[in-house]
Amino acid sequence: MNRNLFLNITSLTGLGIVLNPSFAISPIQNKFTRNQLIGKGNPDISGDSYTSTMHKETAKALAEMSAAALDDNIKIEVVSAYRSFQRQKEIFENKYDRYIGQGLSPTSAIEKIIEYSTIPGTSRHHWGTDLDLIDANAPRPESVLMAENYHGKGPFCKFKEWMHEHAESFGFYEVYTNNANRKGFKYEPWHFSFAEVSIPMLQEYKKLDLKSILLEEKVKGSEHFTDAFISQYRKQNILDINPQLLS
Predict the structure, then answer these.
(1) Are 81 and 182 in contact (CB under 8 A)?
(2) How far apart are CA 66 and CA 76, in angstroms?
(3) In the chain, domain spans
(4) Could you tell me where the beta strands, DSSP code E, fall in the chain?
(5) Is the Cβ–Cβ distance between 40 and 85 less than 8 Å?
(6) pLDDT digit string (tens) for the chain, length 247 residues
(7) Residues β-bridged to residue 76
């Protein structure tokens, strides 16, 4: 490996990053605008395609991790990176319209959507820190983002083993872990987050009035987002993640 750092986030307000004693990294800003946090613009996002657009610090760390993986004949491929508010809104509202058209009530449609998809303005992909990853050197199944591809005789088992051993040393952590006690979004062995940036963004994100934002942005179905629903969604879908990504 050509980088051996382990991120230990120690502060909720001023992000203290403790590395190997020989390293020193300037702290990432811990103040972000509303629009940055909900995917409506971020000056630190760069890239020229759907799979290369991400936070600039995420891109640097990914390049180093990819180079190390290639030494072990694993070619890390990004299948999803930054996703804007508008794109997530399109995904959510298309599903909402489809389920309503099938006869579901608004609340049932929303519950069905959030089994696998985030409400616009709440996706970690809005930050440019979260990536869906596969091994391009492995046989490519028809549907790449399926948990069975990473277990048993799945094509991405070698990739999963490599990431389990090395990803954290590059600052990447699995978000939605295979923990039976975890609520919210289902297990995603392909989804990794660059902690150095995503942790301070999450700390700022938690200060937002999510219900007001969704009403203001006129997301379809938002009039059915009760206080109880928002509270549960926040607790389960936003915060019930890998504990190492919380603080």
Answers:
(1) no
(2) 6
(3) 8-245
(4) 8-9, 17-18, 45-46, 54-55, 76-80, 130-135, 172-174, 191-194
(5) yes
(6) 444 443 343 333 333 333 333 333 344 555 899 999 999 989 999 999 999 999 999 999 999 999 999 999 999 999 999 999 999 999 999 999 999 999 999 999 999 999 888 999 999 999 999 999 999 999 999 999 999 999 999 999 999 999 999 999 999 999 999 999 999 999 999 999 999 999 999 999 999 999 999 999 999 999 999 999 999 999 999 999 999 999 8
(7) 135
**The CATH number fitting domain 8-245, selected from 2.130.10.10, 1.10.260.40, 3.30.40.10, 3.30.1380.10:** 3.30.1380.10
Nearest one of 216, 215, 197 to 205, comparing CA atoms: 197
Question: What pTM does this model have?
Answer: 0.86
- 60-63: long-range contacts at Cβ-Cβ below 8 A with a sequence spacing of 24 or more? 61/170, 61/171, 61/172, 61/194, 61/196, 62/131, 62/170, 62/172, 62/194
Tokens of 10: 């120690």
Alpha-carbon gap, residue 65 to 9, rounded angstroms: 20
* C-beta separation of 194 from 7 below 8 A: no
